């Protein structure tokens, strides 16, 4: 009898482990949180005595299990995402996380440059090596470079000009060995790599990596971020507004608790992001009063390829109506739209 009971307990534990722990080839997204930007963004010596707040919004994305997958079918606050909607083809978990952090870094760069331009303060931009986003399987750099590496030099030549990396590689032939000076997790290492033919390139030599030219930004006053492990580009608009709020001798918040989402593009346009609906739900729960949503324009071609697709603003409004929020949802195409809206508000 005791053996039967023990066997039943073991079977139940195995079933529970499968239901709650077994990873499926899907992700689950759900509302995250609202994070006051004052402790996260610091313009050194900037204005810090405003009454209201600017907050960035997050969504939570986790690997689906059989239990969470089933539960999502009965919840408006959970959404199943196929793996190809989260990770790029061939991209592993580490490369995905590094790409997300890189997009966060780029959003901060754009936020600073746009904010300083709006405030009439010059910035100093310099090219600063090549950031490895992904190493292609069986490429020349496979097993030698890693996602997150920064290539500082090729054959002793520092990479500090736009397009320099591609130009130097273009002078080489398949089979040539290039000596790379690479920064990895704070250490500098030397990595020799024999160039190989790139896939579908008609004989063009390369390292077999996806990369971005990195840039170094110097400002006066200095801007510091404390974003920890938050990734993605969607905080760009709110970073820009928070930086401007600290740069300028005025309270852009007008005393309100304000949140929003949207990528900040170099020209000040607010770009489309994912999860606008869940961010509205999270903002409402956190007592946000005003929410900025990208009013992105969808072409006929995009609508044809994605039937039923809505702009971020339309998604946000629909989510707000569903939960009965009293929060004001404001459409913005550019950072100027957000600034104009804020500057016509009466102080709270």
Describe the protein.
The model has no long low-confidence stretch (mean pLDDT 92). The longest helix is centred in the first third of the chain and has 26 residues. The protein has 348 residues and is of the alpha+beta class. The protein has two domains: 212 residues, Ribosomal Protein S5, domain 2, CATH 3.30.230; 93 residues, PDZ domain (Pdz3 Domain). 31% of the residues lie in helices and 28% in strands.
Largest sheet, in brief, is: 6 strands, mixed
Q: Helical percent range?
A: 25-40%
Structural class: alpha+beta
- What is the C-alpha radius of gyration, as a whole number of Å? 24 Å
Outline of this structure?
This protein is of the alpha+beta class and about 350 residues long. It has helices at about 1-20, 65-70, 95-120, 165-170, 235-245, 275-285, 300-305, 310-325, 335-345; strands spanning about 25-35, 40-45, 55-65, 80, 125-135, 150-155, 155-160, 175-185, 185-195, 195, 205, 210-220, 225, 255-260, 265, 270, 290-295, 330. Helix 3 (about 95-120) packs parallel to helix 5 and helix 6 crosses helix 8 (about 310-325).
